[in-house]
């Protein structure tokens, strides 16, 4: 058996390192030194209306409650709209046809004036401060709405991917689309607290 | 203004690329080619009891509902325990003292026979399949329980970090600790479906 890909004190590691049990990266510097900022922190940023487009059936109650919670928090900063696009509108059993139908439905929702951010596992890996940058950048483009697109269980189609003004990923993990929505909503709220230089309220 | 760190069709990008609007990484190969597997997929893996230790006050209703939902799903594969450690037991206003007190409380919960996985923003970036590997690896160590530790709003203390048998991170984003718990629970369920070679139920 090879070396485990994480530090391990289980005895299976054939060359126990002095660092066993230590974090995989060096310990972080003290909080004061590692405060990261968005380039827009403390600057005036245009509070464009936001819309989150998701594909799916009815959400679980827990997901819906959390989405409402973050919508309310985000509402202090900008208008937020939450649009659920019907999953598999053609009621097909062919995954490819399903993806194409959902893709077409989502394209119908996108207008020329939208700044479109697509969430995709092949997108750019971002930190929270970069989501704040993205909101600030989008505000400088002349777009009139910032729209985030999350695909259904089988992901997004090619038209929406090509329409994207930015493509990001939330994690290296494959996230359930409802969980991805929760993570996104929390990050949008966090991004605004970063821009405004405010304390994050847990 | 420099080049935006994501592909952009807003006109701010001084050297518009042919790839504007395209994903930041090359498009993924077709699904058939990119099926990733855990090294344990289809193998028998010891279903060690799992415990998730979190620090905090009362969770939001949405979070609790989602935790219960995934606990039930995970319960088909292994025993799952969800332990909430009291936040700031010394009721101090000094963040350092708070972290140390929470660290000590969490250490009291950890036994010698625990395989301890710490979630930390400086940990190893993992894919879902590697969480499946981690569960399989832990089952081969002789440990009798697999324990995941999530810190409170100010993160984990040094004792727990040093006690870790593995340190992973769920995202490059800074996640609220309740959101981190939801992501973890979903990944543990996903990991077991990967190990068992089963369809993921949304």
TrEMBL record, chains A, B:
Family matches, as CDD domains: RlmH-like
Q: Which SUPFAM superfamilies match?
A: alpha/beta knot
Q: Report any one BP term from Gene Ontology.
A: rRNA processing
* Domain of life where this protein originates: Eukaryota
Q: Does the keyword Transit peptide apply?
A: no
Q: Would I find Transferase among this entry's keywords?
A: yes
Region of interest (Disordered), residue spans: 12-41
The regions listed as transmembrane in this protein's record are none
Which UniProt keywords are listed? Methyltransferase, S-adenosyl-L-methionine, Transferase
Picking any one GO molecular function of the record gives:
methyltransferase activity
What protein family is recorded? Belongs to the RNA methyltransferase RlmH family.
Protein known as: RNA methyltransferase
Protein species of origin? Triticum aestivum
